[in-house]
Give the backbone structure.
Amino acid sequence: MNHIERAKSIFAHYLTVNPQSNHYYGLIALYGMVNLCEASGDTDSVELTKRMLDAFPDRVEHPRYNFPSYRVGGIAKARVVYTGLLSGDEYERQLAEYADELMSARRSHDGILSMPHGDNPDKVWIDVATAATPFLLFSGLKLGRGEYIDEAAFQSLAMYDLFLDKSCGLLHQSRDFCGEGRFSDDHWSRGNGWGILPLAELCAHLPENHPERGRCIEYYKAHINSLAKYQSQNGMWRQEITVEFLDTQSELGILESYEETSGTGLILYAIGVGIRNGLLDWNEYLPIFKRGIDGLYKVSISEDDSIVNSCPGCLCPGDGTISAYLNHRKTFRDEPHGAGPVILALSEAARLGV
């Protein structure tokens, strides 16, 4: 199986749904393409990715964003400038401007980047780790700004300390969205992906002498070990990772926790990064990774390159219970969060030669 060619086809199909690849989920698709370019050097992909990211911020229609860094192309732009695929003073100026915006954005009482809208500054959610940490990390590395790198590590580690459910080693998604001081009860697939992706990037790219490097690796390995226990027979992770079915003991009856595409793709990408960088044992974790890639082809990727079984936008639905996550809006073909994580996972598969 040529993973690069299939990932290119998936992105080409995705552009029929989201031509500018904007919104935060479009930027994840572009982050996937940046990784595909690194993995393959494919000339057509490089030119397409450069052209699309060069359009940010001034030649793209922007929806409402929670964080200004999305306007400049988010983590995809930061990485492509860091690697030198896009180079020049103007791109570096953009990174500095939007990294400074993140450095001064609203925070919770415990220092975590928080929901910028509304009266409650303590509304925080794990999705923000992916929005902020890689952007600050790659900007700091490119520009020689240690304060950006330190903040990148702080944000991810603080969210792990806050959201980790020690009973299972997985992450909850949010605090204060379903009541003051209350955490959502979930162990949501994509939420755990939003946590583990930036942690994997920290482990791969933090300077060897950074004081938080050891803790990042410790947290990363612990989370991967916990996730591995819940991989399904098909190689996937479920919408609520910890259950296959849930008896709600209510009028909702028994709810299925379906095998969910976007979280699986993000988790597989993080596992691949760990294997490739020597953080995870090849013999132990490559079979887990390969089983997951096979699962994406079986469960997630359609013959026409559309993506299925990806969870629609989800932030503490209903009362934040597990049943609320399972009773969330039904998935649909071409749900826009799915393509990027799949492209990321396939790019890692190509890098690992599986």
